[in-house]
Design goal:
Radius of gyration: 18 Å
Helix content: 25-40%
Strand order of the largest sheet: 3-2-1-10-7-6-5-4
CATH superfamily: Divalent-metal-dependent TIM barrel enzymes
Structural class: alpha/beta
Number of domains: 1
Shape: globular
Number of strands: 10
Length: 294
Amino acid sequence: MEPRLSVSQITTFQSGFAEDVRAYAAAGLDGIGVWELKLPEGGDAEALELLEASGLAAAAAVPELPSILPLPLLGGPEDPAERIDAYCRSLERLAPFNPSGFVLLTGTAEGHDLDDARAIVTDGLATIGAEAARLGLRVGLEPYQRDGGEPWTIVSSIPEAIDLLGDAGDPSAIGIQFDVWHLWNTPTLYDDIAGELHRFTGVHVCDVREPTRGWADRALPGDGIADVPSILRALDEAGWDGLYDIEIFSDDGTFGANYPDSFWAAPPAETLARARAAFENCWSLTPQTVKEST
């Protein structure tokens, strides 16, 4: 089966929602990963109308406050209760866009005893899971890359994320958001894909620059050190039939690192064309499994 390709809106960080929708449709993409921070204040109805008219499907959506515990590098309130309330409001706001799922990070344990941090997160997962179930939505808990992940997460692998969900009572509406950048070097990666794909709510695709200059310095698929073709093959063989959502963080100075080759500083049409070509090249290197139609 031919892959369906989308791009997450953070990849074209400096353009607005309407510009993104027009550019993504013109690039021949199948979908768009909606970021709440891109929605114009008071303009949800117009944004939704534009998206529906474009024919683009909504991939994984990212709320404005995407974690339970704080994310020091991104700001926002420190109080987890405030963050959980904000996340639940985002679920309701973004539900009409019909995304395939919602990205959720645990946030950092810095400043907390690890057991206390874990208890806060499990309580938050239960609350968010109940709200997502009420709205008929799916949330994907995203493990964050172990190398340098302390400011972002308390789980860095799929098994760790599953254990955490178990502690929260296995909320039925919460699964796993898969991300190549975060999981490419996990020792059990291919076993995790084969055994847990039924939990996946979304798939983010990019590559890992070597040397990596920072957390917002990701490469296009095939341009880094991750074996993206093999990962795509594993996802395909395990039965992934959702959108492959390219997500590129590439700081242009917004977060303190002005990379001279920043994708965020490039015209969106150029970035989208390069992203699509890079993905298609990786896919062409991937022996495809012939699936029987059901």
